[in-house]
Specification:
Number of strands: 29
Structural class: alpha+beta
Shape: globular
Largest sheet: 6 strands, antiparallel
Bound molecules: adenosine-5'-diphosphate, magnesium ion
Oligomer: single chain
Distance between the termini: 52 Å
Length: 561
């Protein structure tokens, strides 16, 4: 262990900037250790990376805040936020994500495994090392690393400096959300929205809850109300969304998409006061949408697309430039392939011709001229034969009343049960003929590892561009249409996970994508974020569904079947 960081920095004052690299190593600091993982090559290069380790005794967090993986994740999420607050407007950068509380590399509470001390706190961050031109500014560096950083540790990572009630509330809230999500499956539900939940967000670019007198808190319709007992909050009531096909109808601007987006985000736990703390959906819930222009690699879309003018085989379909309908068909099949059991679809982002084909259009355009089979004829079978539920927002067509198990109407942001009325209406024939009666089993694909290459001139290149794209090797993966991506670190996590699938041999050309993801899931379970953190960049542990979605959008991907 190295000592005397302050003196060392003073010694380096005025030296060429690259000498910062000599700081690499572990330093003893008052009350913690500072690991300089990577120096900074020049003033314009990415910040240096450091990790702060605070021993359990110093950190002082009581056992009940960290006695299980969920509570450790929550505590880490809380501490990352405190550290990020303390680091605001300084050269220190702590990644804490936004409203979601994810397993992140930036903060970790030791669980006693792998030589880690139980209850110790590790925070990883970026540090912009100060320079004067191309020279080291040793005095300023001393200020950052020997004054600012210890102050951050003291303020944000010592239990004694924190608001005990607030910490507890945060940890309890996350544990409750997790418990609520686990309760869904045994209750036959795909999602739950608590009474009193605040679903709307401040704006399209601000995920914090909408505030003000105009906000209508959620209230469940009687027919869908269920009660669940939670470890900390006790009994809560709300709307249970059952398995099967659930249709959400209602006038424009009445809150349909807002409800669906809350279900999208419900796969993650949220911070207290988010408004969606107790709005959860199953972890295997995937949003599906149209995305023209994406690539498709050997996906069996014949359930949706029977024949194409080009003569391409739709049971083994590849393209570099999908249409709206083929992209949505492929995304849906890929989601089921990766293990999705609940699909969310919003008319706002769906391809109309893949969703509906009404009686008149059936009469005008003969079936042999129309390659598409609309989802309305497949949704039932998807549930009956494959146990895949759908929650669908559709205000513009009544044809789904024929296939929906449940119909909810949003009216001025409040849902009501209109299932009986919809059934009645569905008894009046429209003259529409069903175009399919079964959704076929998904064909599993075996990705070729050589086609998932993160290297550029022998060096790994995995870098998120906000939440829009992932630079992966020589490729740019466009993930704008992968809607369940909460923040930039999550995108980085996806990239690392893709690389790990290859590095650890899970993708070996013989395993199916689903099998490879099973193996990775097992490794990442229980907060083994360390596996991703070895890459040393801010990242969060992604779900298998977004890893699969990104792989499927990697233009170099090749598969065997
Ligand atoms: P729809 O999909 O039915 O057309 P949206 O879900 O897009 O409607 O919502 C329309 C607007 O209403 C959005 O600006 C949204 O933020 C706002 N909104 C949604 N739910 C609520 C609510 N419960 N209280 C207040 N405003 C809401
Ligand atoms: Mg909408």
């Amino acid at each position: 262990m190295r000592t005397g960081l302050a003196e060392e920095l003073r010694r380096l004052d005025g030296a060429s900037y690259g000498r910062y690299k000599s700081l690499t190593g572990t330093w003893r600091m008052p009350g913690f250790t500072l690991e300089v993982v990577r120096g900074q090559a020049d003033p314009f290069a990415p910040p240096a990376r450091v990790a702060v380790h605070v021993p359990a005794e110093r950190a002082g967090f009581p056992g009940e805040l960290r006695n299980c993986p969920v509570r450790r994740r929550a505590l880490a999420g809380y501490l990352a936020r405190q550290a990020a607050d303390a680091a605001a407007r300084t050269p220190l950068h702590v990644d804490c994500g936004r409203q979601e509380v994810l397993d992140r590399a930036s903060c970790r509470i030791g669980d006693g495994r792998d030589g880690e001390e139980r209850g110790a706190v590790t925070v990883r961050m970026g540090v912009e090392l100060p320079g004067r031109g191309r020279r080291i500014d040793g005095r300023a560096a001393e200020d950052v690393l020997c004054r600012l950083l210890p102050r951050l540790v003291e303020r944000a990572l010592h239990y004694a400096s924190l608001d005990a009630v607030e910490v507890r509330r945060f940890v309890d809230a996350v544990e409750d959300a997790d418990a609520l999500r686990r309760a869904l499956d045994p209750l036959g539900l795909v999602a739950f929205v608590a009474d009193g939940a605040v679903l709307p967000r401040r704006s399209g670019v601000d995920e914090r809850p909408l505030t003000g007198p105009g906000v209508v808190p959620f209230a469940s319709p009687d027919a869908f109300r269920v009660a669940v007992d939670l470890p900390n909050a006790g009994r809560v009531t709300g709307m249970g969304v059952p398995e099967g096909v659930t249709l959400i109808v209602g006038g424009g601007f009445h809150g349909k998409s807002t409800l669906l987006r809350a279900l999208e985000a419900g796969v993650w736990d949220h911070v207290p006061d988010d408004g969606r703390e107790l709005t959860v959906s199953r972890t295997d819930t995937v949003k599906i949408r149209a995305e023209d222009g994406r690539r498709i690699e050997r996906v069996d879309v014949h359930a949706f697309v029977s024949h194409l003018p080009s003569g391409a085989d739709t049971a083994d379909f590849s393209t570099d430039n999908a249409s709206g309908s083929t992209s949505q068909a492929a995304s849906l099949v890929e989601a089921v392939e990766a293990g999705a059991r609940t699909l969310l679809i919003d008319e706002d982002t769906a391809a109309t011709n893949l969703m509906i084909r009404d009686a008149r259009m059936q009469a005008l355009v003969a079936k042999d001229r129309e390659p598409l089979t609309p989802f309305v004829d497949l949704a039932r079978s998807l549930h009956r034969d494959h146990d895949v539920s759908t929650v669908l927002v559709m205000g513009g067509s009544g044809d789904y009343m024929d296939v929906a198990d449940h119909v909810l109407m949003m009216d001025a942001y409040l849902p009501s049960d209109v299932t009986a009325r919809a059934r009645e209406l569905a008894r009046v024939p429209t003259g529409r003929k069903a175009e399919a009666d079964a959704f076929p089993a998904v064909t599993h694909r075996r990705p070729a590892p050589a086609s998932v290459d993160s290297l550029v001139r022998g060096r790994s290149r995995v870098r998120a561009r906000g939440t829009d794209a992932l630079a992966f090797g020589e490729e740019q993966v466009d993930v704008r249409a992968v809607e369940q991506i909460p923040d930039r670190g999550y995108v980085t996590g996806i990239g690392f996970a893709m690389e790990l699938l290859v590095r650890r041999g899970h993708l070996d050309g013989k395993r199916t994508l689903a099998e490879a993801l099973d193996l990775l899931d097992r490794e990442l379970a229980g907060g083994a974020v360390e596996l991703l953190a070895v890459y040393d960049d801010d990242c969060a542990v992604p779900r298998r569904h977004e890893i699969a979605a990104a792989l499927n959008r990697l233009r170099s991907l090749r598969v065997n079947r």
